[in-house]
């Protein structure tokens, strides 16, 4: 029986993918094989020795100690694209809110006083303060063309906007999904100078931390709108406030409230609603459950942020998985241990990612525990599993 610890509420639609005759699932459980979570902060958590994998029902993994888990040979799975439509819709909503001054207009209307005739007079007198503009003909710059960025770009085109995109690491898969009408920016700076709206869709890393700062924001056209549904620290808040106060930015729409932002009349700030839809939570849970199950039962790895992608058809043989440092002669030592035990290798697949390598091996007979132990003792080997499913 495999034990799964849930650190946050995980949609029942996802948990239902894990058969109860094979998986025990609880929010309090000892010696878990798998941890499933959403936003729980694992950085101060003691990692159980029994742990084999971590699955996050979402895309960002800043709340997970990925480097530490990599050193222990533990894969971290996430769910890129599962919540993309939910975020896309929120970005579009943010553009409408900013373009038509809807939040300020709603606040004005709800605070009107007097009888209906008085209110009608106030409406006619006050509505000119909330005059906005329409989206068609304006240019949206999208930084990051992953699952969300591609959907946002294509949707903005359908609204009649011009779209410029920048992503030096765009995958072939995403490039096929992106409309050919999206123009390519040569750099972030090039994109900023040409965009009335800018939406960022990149992970928070050392490279992207405060990527939009007091040097870059002044490059934008006067009155531009900046949208951040990625991570709060992608932008320099103080630089944003200064740009808003000067009129360089017309509005900032963010999913990440702070004291510096929440009371600024040019800021529309939301309580991290990006993936807060039932559909997104279901999609993320289903995706991560399928991924951890495939890893446990077949050794397959898809959508891991620290392991290489690998899949190998599982025939009649018995499967061994090995995680090790990506150094010479590891496969030779593993093969020798199997040969010395007279275990015939039927199939093998080896992939590497950075300093880590991962191997699937199918052999003709069950792998005895002493052979597993021998391979585990090889210098550089982090984890060995003889699959029992």
Going by helix content, strand content and strand pairing, the class is: alpha/beta
The helix content, as a percent range, equals 25-40%
- Strand fraction band? 15-25%
Please, what is the CATH homologous superfamily of the largest domain? NAD(P)-binding Rossmann-like Domain
- CATH topology category name of the largest domain: Rossmann fold
CATH architecture classification name of the largest domain: 3-Layer(aba) Sandwich
Low-confidence stretches: none
Mean pLDDT: 95
Major sheet: order of its strands? 8-7-6-9-10-11-12
Radius of gyration: 26 Å
Number of strands: 16
Explain this structure to me?
It is built from twelve helices and 16 strands. It has 389 residues and is an alpha/beta fold. The chain folds into three domains: 112 residues, 3-Layer(aba) Sandwich (Rossmann fold); 186 residues, 3-Layer(aba) Sandwich (Rossmann fold), CATH 3.40.50; 82 residues, Alpha-Beta Plaits, CATH 3.30.70. The strands form three sheets. It has a seven-stranded parallel beta sheet with strand order 8-7-6-9-10-11-12. It is elongated and about 90 Å long. The N and C termini lie close together (10 Å). The relative contact order is 0.12.
Helix-strand blueprint:
Blueprint: E1 2-6, H1 12-15, E2 23-26, E3 34-37, E4 53-56, H2 66-71, E5 76-77, H3 84-99, H4 102-110, H5 116-126, E6 139-143, H6 147-158, E7 162-166, H7 172-177, E8 183-184, H8 188-193, E9 197-200, E10 224-228, H9 237-246, E11 249-254, E12 267-269, H10 278-298, E13 318-325, H11 330-340, E14 345-353, E15 356-363, H12 369-376, E16 381-386
Parallel strand pairs: 1-2, 1-3, 3-4, 4-5, 6-7, 6-9, 7-8, 9-10, 10-11, 11-12
Antiparallel strand pairs: 13-15, 13-16, 14-15
